[in-house]
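Sample entry as discussed:
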Amino acid sequence: MIELEGVPELIDPVMVAAFEGWNDAGDAASTAVAHLEREWKGEVFAALDAEDYYDFQVNRPTVFMDGGVRKITWPTTRLSVVRVGGDKPRDLVLVRGIEPSMRWRSFCNELLGFAHELGVELVVILGALLGDTPHTRPVPISGTTSDTDLARRMDLEETKYEGPTGIVGILQEACTHAGVPAVSLWAAVPHYVSQPPNPKATLALLNRLEDLLDLRIPLGELPEDARAWQVGVDQLAAEDSEVAEYVQTLEEARDTAELPEASGEAIAREFERYLRRRDGGPSSGGHATADGGDGGSYLRDSPGGRPRPPRPPKAEPDDGDAGNDSSEE
């Protein structure tokens, strides 16, 4: 039995989790949880024993100096609690760490033990995968669940994904078996600009989380960082005509596919977010791809030395188990 001391009784708690590694293209998901922790001043109340879950030759500890004393930081997964104020205050249990190297079932059971002890009512797992999406368009976010009732109530897709999965998919499946409602939110990151950070994808995940939980998240400098990121990628792409042509091809495919959707539901969601912010006043190895494989990095060099965008498999967002758009979790 997990016993927690010093943690107050929580109000309508929701667990929000993200893990660095295969499930976290552009570090978009882990940065989103780090942003929540920073903006709401979360305090760590528990950490999983690194010795149980990590291969230290894969995720190495780091040494640092603290007042002239050498100390070691071990790779692990930490939990913190933040309280969201407003008319209906509620608590978020934030889980941020690294995809474990081993004993995934025990890892998930330990996290679910904390969820049970804290009275968590919903688990939301954030992920990001590499896809054939243009950086110039809104970041696609897919929301999936294994729960039919939850899918209908929260306007989510029921996961039908089959293929390789990561800790996001395993944790969602563990939640399902434990009877804990769970949702995965996946951001699609352009495969041709995959290196972190990707503030545009982080921002999109936080916006979708706002809609899902009906709360207002202080965004700080994220919107400006997202704009600056896009301008920077625009400039990089413009330096190579082949890359610019490829981006244009992706844009045309995306616009054609979404044309029927310039829909009232998307517009209404944006308007609701605007009202929420106005009324609330002012106030972060390879990765999963749309087909379950590992993606490469930005503009790899061709044999002739010119950067070429890799051609990924056709994206097909889905997956609550394999958490990614169509390949991950």
Observations:
- The longest strand covers residues 122-131.
